[in-house]
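RECORD TYPE: protein structure
NAME: MFS transporter
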Amino acid sequence: MRQTDPAPIADLAPVRRRAQQRAWNWYDWANSAFYTTTLTVLFGPLMITVAGRAAGCGGSPDDTCKKTVDVLGLHLAAGSLPSYLTSFATIASAFILPVVGALVDRSGRKKMHMAWFAWSGSFFAALLFFLRGDNWQLGAVVVVIASILAGCSLVSYYAIMVDISTESERDGVSARGWAFGYLGGGLLLLINLGMVLGHGALGIDKELAVRLSLLSAALWWAGFTIIPVAKLKNVPPRNVLPEPGGLLKRSFGQLWATLKDLRNYPMTMTFLLAYLFYNDGIQTVIYSASIYGSKQLHFGESVLIAAILLIQFVAFGGALFFGRFAAKYGAYRCLVWGTVAWMVIVVGAMFLPEKNIALFLLAGVAIALVMGGTQALSRSFYSLFIPRGREGEYFALYNACERGTSWFGTLLFGVVFQVTGSYRPAILSLIVFFALGLVLLLRLDTRRGIAEAGNAVPSVV
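PREDICTED:
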């Protein structure tokens, strides 16, 4: 009697993918420390203090300092220097990231690209520990380099998501990653703010506490990156367009080919434009929340810190909630209604009464819930519109839309304040970005766009 091979007991592919997805989450945990502790909270005030000393403004972190420092022949107000550095880094990233994405698509070592960009970025971020006295130049250079390298690492990180998940799994994978990032970033921020506020009990001055916090964010970023690098598996490149020459030349060639080919994917382009607008609104709300709370609603530092931490931890739940909601109703509906919710939030923010802590924190909860969900689902939803094998390049375009144009909202916010003299109409003006994003989302034919990209259409989109 002829023996036959035993039938497989179970399909283990989903189990293997889930293990890869858990490893992948750790990079969200790792890099969020840099974005939260360094870029969002602590770097700006310290840079203003140090640059202010050089300019003769004194030693307090006052963003009203109008005295200038010389930056490559330009005389920039010390109080505005962090904003200018952030704008320069984001605009530079818009040009650099697509080239990095093209290189990533041609490599079978995505996780190592992610790792080296992350470790290089964390090295420069660690040098912010030496931002002291009146030596602002060092901080200005290294924060720009670290920000660009962080963006480069995310191009590989986002592309890896496509390798380790099916189309139907993406929303949950992205949501868990964002949630993990909010939790990690919030945990370190809580520790660092405790150290800064309690510096006297530790026997150190406040500025040293801030510098140690910046160093801890760099070490956190570098250290936790080891986990995904150790556990993720590389996947060979697929569907790579033939280009002659070396790797760098082929990368530029593929980039140009993709930009020309983008017109063949009109739904992909429509979503990118929608994301450009509504994400600009999101980034400006995040940027302006502390300004609005302190200058318009007259809250002190303790209330603002409580709001920052509340938003960080509630956004963890918001990302998970939207992930589950998307599994039932589809990411598209979540993004549409999430954008509507952002419009309601900015209208409500305009009418917040001064010094009403309960309503201010309630607004923070609303921001956190919607922020966590819309950011997580934007990443996974966009992945469905990317032609297979070109994830690095297309996610680079996605990041370029986010980084290269994220100053539109802050510009409008500043102009409206200058014209009206109030932050209330300034915050309301941001509704324009959400409205434009919503109009473009409503023009999106989701199933057509996914099919044009050659991807499987999930049962619920």
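COMMENT: The longest strand covers residues 68-71.
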